[in-house]
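User: tokens in, sequence out, please.
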């Protein structure tokens, strides 16, 4: 679960975090109507409801998927444990049960080879957890890691559970939050990215930030779009050759760090620029420092690798 940086996933996480916060704020304004019943923490999902019940809900809370079948004896041992833990974890994850006999297409899409099989979906990203029988201690360890990653990397803190809430009421979905004043511009920026119009995306995000400098989605989107714009057309072989042969060349190190990050080598990108900061001075040092801060924006302030790199940068500066 701690693999390379997927820029699309990071973007989705930031959007999910912002919309979930809006949903919680709106529920609070309406008198706390955002809580769910413990009975709503375990749901049956089929192919027709998968997009809403799993993909959309995964922008609010990690969704653990239990692939099972009536004839599967190990499933009958595992499923009750997962159901009990879903309630015990008090909204930190949602359990979605999928009957493989009735939902062959979903089974194939996830590449399930045998059951029981357990996956998770976080901010639209699928993660395999384990397959076959598992002890409760192993399951707890896996779930603990899942909820930690969901919170640290994706800002998903789970659902508010109220034992007195009516089953089936559910929290107000994040997608039901009224559109914000900049949603049209943000959607235009996303379309521009999808179409490869990086200049258009950059300008759209800047337009949002001109009116709302702290907009988290625009800050992240601009950092991503500018990063992709910088690496567009670069010759990776030449960039890495220049960086290896010219350790004092700040521009060469910055270009290599950009490529490192796009390739998912987060620690390499951060470490390269921290070393550059440490061995330079004046304008060169500041240039490397500013680029490093921009890369922090792409990965996200809550990411443990960013937190560690900030400490290392402070040591290099002082």
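Assistant: Sequence out:
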């Amino acid at each position: 679960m701690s693999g390379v940086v997927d820029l699309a996933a990071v973007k989705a996480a930031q959007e999910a975090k912002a919309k979930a916060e809006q949903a919680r704020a709106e529920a609070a304004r309406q008198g706390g109507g955002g809580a769910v019943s413990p009975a709503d923490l375990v749901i049956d999902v089929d192919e027709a409801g998968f997009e809403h019940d799993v993909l959309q809900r995964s922008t609010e809370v990690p969704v653990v998927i239990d692939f099972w079948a009536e004839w599967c004896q190990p499933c009958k041992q595992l499923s009750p444990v997962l159901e009990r833990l879903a309630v015990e974890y008090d909204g930190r994850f949602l359990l979605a049960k999928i009957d493989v006999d009735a939902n062959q297409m979903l089974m194939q899409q996830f590449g399930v080879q045998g059951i029981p099989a357990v996956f998770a979906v976080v901010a639209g990203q699928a993660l395999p957890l384990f397959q076959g029988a598992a002890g409760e201690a192993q399951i707890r360890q896996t779930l603990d890691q899942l909820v930690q990653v969901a919170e640290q990397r994706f800002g998903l803190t789970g659902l508010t559970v109220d034992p007195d809430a009516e089953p089936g009421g559910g929290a107000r979905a994040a997608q039901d939050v009224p559109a914000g004043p900049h949603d049209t511009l943000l959607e235009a920026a996303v379309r521009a990215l999808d179409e490869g119009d990086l200049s258009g995306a950059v300008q759209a995000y800047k337009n949002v930030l001109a009116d709302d400098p702290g907009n988290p989605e625009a800050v992240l989107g601009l950092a991503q779009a500018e990063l992709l714009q910088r690496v567009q057309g670069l010759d990776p072989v030449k960039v890495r050759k220049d960086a290896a042969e010219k350790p004092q060349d700040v521009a060469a190190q910055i270009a290599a760090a950009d490529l490192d990050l796009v390739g998912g080598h987060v620690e390499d990108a951060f470490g390269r620029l921290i070393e550059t900061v440490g061995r330079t001075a004046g304008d060169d040092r500041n240039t490397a420092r500013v680029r490093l801060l921009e890369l922090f924006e792409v990965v996200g302030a809550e990411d443990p690798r960013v937190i560690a790199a900030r400490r290392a940068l402070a040591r290099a500066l002082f």
